[in-house]
Amino acid sequence: MHIAEGYLPPVHAVAWSAAAAPFIVHGVRVLTREVRRNPEAPLLLGASGAFTFVLSALKIPSVTGSCSHPTGTGLGAILFRPPVMAVLGTITLLFQALLLAHGGLTTLGANAFSMAILGPWAGYGAYRLGLRAGAPLMVAVFCGAFVADLSTYCVTTVQLALAFPDPSSGFTGALAKFGGIFAVTQIPLAISEGLLTVLVLRLLIQSSPGDLARLGVPFRGRDKAVAR
Amino acid sequence: MLPIDTAAHSSRWRRRNPLEKAVLAFGLTSLALTLPPWPGGPLTAAVALAALLGPARVPPRRLWRAYRVPLGFCLTGAVPLLFTLGGPGGIVGPAEGGWARATDLLLRSSSASLGLLLFAFTTPMSDVLPRLTRAGIPAPVVDVALATYRMSFLLLDSLARIRQAQAARLGDASRAAAWRSLAGLGAAAFVRAFDRAARLQSGLADRGYEGRLHVLVPETPVSVRFLIATVACLATTAILTIVSEGFLT
């Protein structure tokens, strides 16, 4: 769910951009270091960015009978790590704004905070926690993708509730209003994205084990996770 | 290519310097955000539409197809403002001043979206990205964005063909088959993206690639006349809004 151009009041748009800036700057530093160390990194990262962009354009069947788009943040964070995802996600959001009219430039900071920063960090945290708790890789991957998707929408809900508090019940009422509307579609969608991510990763383990190993995805045999 | 980028490549303003178009488009977006929604929203939207359909010659049908996406979000996003929770009317009731707030939001976001579309429909990404280094964006980030941009279209094209092949083999016949096809599509995107990056790397290495993607950017001088006209247009819109707001209230 991208917040459209002009939807947030100017003060909120600036505040969310300021909140996203340190994470993006950190991601840029990590990315620059990687490019200096490895000259072929821009092409691999470009491929990762294109993969993220294309993944967000896939239509997944929703439980309600309609179709929706995955955020792709969970899979991206597992494969490329959250700091790099902050940059790749922001580039993807910029492309979506200018090529698909999804989102906007004044709301880029708010969208980046939810989709490129908090979603990937929360998803990656859930994935690592799962691995550390000894869960099979695919269970950890499902948790990562599910949490990444759901936390993205939770942040968007908070952003909208802060911008448009309810006249009677204030922020809490607005949170319940926007959250209630999102919950109908987003909880099934988060489950769908978790399942899709598991299926994609299972296929990748079969078809591209070399690339996955290079990206540091821990797998051994079929689905067995190995803690790094 | 995607419809907006295709339109941008064939736009009448394609050869204009991106800075000129950015000043006009983002100036209009800023006005839509900062001026009173009524009558500021309709006025800025009218100026953006006049520029899009007039001198920029954007096909109306293509513009509508792109515009209905943010418009849909604005409409659905405005609905919750009409209701309130826990007020005197019960658990859910009509919000006092809800219609006014929802209308203001609709006017503001729909006109700001037109400003963004004015830039998107007249400026291809391939013209913007190489110039970002001059705006202070680190070169490695611009290189990654350029590689992402170029590979995205190839990937989208590949996936459209795979989707067609899957559909022809009854890949959507049942819910289970649809999920299998979708997972195959996601995995194919990953494999193709990394395969293409590896082949691009080896091709570039043969040409002396050292980690920077140098792109030729056609030198297009900034038109001072266009910039003066843009500033005059933005100022007139702002003054008209303020004067007419006072008159209307």
Descriptive labels:
heterodimer, A: 228 residues, mainly alpha, Arp2/3 complex 21 kDa subunit ARPC3, two-stranded antiparallel sheet, 8 helices, 73% helix, disordered C terminus, B: 249 residues, 2 domains, 2 strands, 4% strand
In short:
The complex is a heterodimer of chains A (228) and B (249). Chain A contains 8 helices and 2 strands, in the order ααββαααααα. Chain A has helices at 10-37, 41-55, 73-80, 82-100, 108-132, 137-163, 170-207, 209-215, and strands spanning 60-61, 67-68.
Give an overview of the whole structure.
The complex is a heterodimer of chains A (228) and B (249). Chain A is 73% helix and 2% strand. Chain A has 228 residues and is mainly α. Chain A has a single domain (10-215), classed as Arp2/3 complex 21 kDa subunit ARPC3 (Orthogonal Bundle), CATH 1.10.1760. In chain A, strands 1-2 form a two-stranded antiparallel sheet. With 249 residues, chain B is mainly alpha-helical. Chain B is 71% helix and 4% strand. Chain B has nine helices and two strands; from the N terminus they run H-H-H-H-E-E-H-H-H-H-H. The interface between A and B is large, with 72 and 83 residues.
* Low-pLDDT segments, ≥5 res of chain A: 222-228
Biggest sheet overview of chain A: 2 strands, antiparallel
* Top-tier CATH class of chain A: Mainly Alpha
Residue fraction in strands of chain B: under 5%
Task: Please report the number of helical segments of chain A.
Answer: 8
Query: Into how many domains do the coordinates of chain A divide?
Result: 1
User: Termini distance of chain B?
Assistant: 47 Å
Strand composition percent of chain A: under 5%
**CATH topology assignment of chain A:** Arp2/3 complex 21 kDa subunit ARPC3
Q: In sequence order, what are the helices and strands of chain A, one letter per element?
A: HHEEHHHHHH
* Total discrete domains of chain B: 2
Strand order of the largest sheet of chain A: 1-2
> How many DSSP H or I helices of chain B?
9
